[in-house]
Amino acid sequence: MSSITTAPVSLAEQAYRLLEEQLVTLALPPGSKVSEGQLIAMTGFGRTPVREAILRLAQQDMFTVLPRKGLVVTPVSRASMVHILEVRKPLERVVVHRAALNASDTQRSEIAAIARTLTISHDSFEDFLKLDSELDDLLDSCAGNPFVRAAVSPLRSHCRRFWYFHRNQMQLSDAISAHSKMARLVARREYNGAQKASDGVIAVMERLMAGIER
Question: How far apart, in Å, are the Cα atoms of 30 and each of 23, 76, 114, 125?
Fold first, then answer.
């Protein structure tokens, strides 16, 4: 019986994931100023991996780097979300289409399990956000397109941060229903329906934006 070994996650990647989580959950508040030293202390990683993570997040417009003055956490912006969703929508259609076609039986079972768990997460925004992230990672693995993953991942981070920022205004039940429907269709190999359901996930965000003042 063969075993699959995975490459160890680099310190820079670990620092990136931790800082991305802090940004999404607003532990690093939008518009706040922070220093590299503060982020080193927050993450517990050394200067080099943290600096690499900062540069990556700055390229994704999560941080603005102010030369010799530190960093500013990018504000949450409705206008930016309009552009983000415009790009994210077609990318997600590619992901779910390829995932529905390519997923192994084991992966389909895992996707279906997430769909079932989503339906009982209605009381917990944090549980929903965690399951949403797990589903995205699984769909990306099934799709097997590293270029799409690289393009869509930071867009999802912006969307989750927007959700978190406006969590009191979003209809969590709508988001859960849309994600669960999409997952079930992917698990059943219904790639055309899964693409439409992916549009439904984006539509939840669009409805949230419609209720927020410009």
Answer: 8, 6, 30, 19
How much is the mean pLDDT over the chain?
Answer: 92
90-134 pLDDT per residue, tens: 999 999 999 999 999 999 999 999 999 998 877 788 889 999 999
Give the fold, CATH level 3, of 11-73. Arc Repressor Mutant, subunit A (1.10.10)
- HSE (CB half, 13 Å, CA atoms) of 184? 12
Q: Which of the 8 DSSP states describes residue 63? A: E
**Tell me, what DSSP letter sits at residue 169?**
T
Stretch(es) of the chain classified as CATH 1.10.10.10:
11-73
In order of 9, 137, 141, 152, the CA distances from 149 in angstroms are 17, 9, 9, 5
**What pTM, to 2 d.p., does this model score?**
0.90
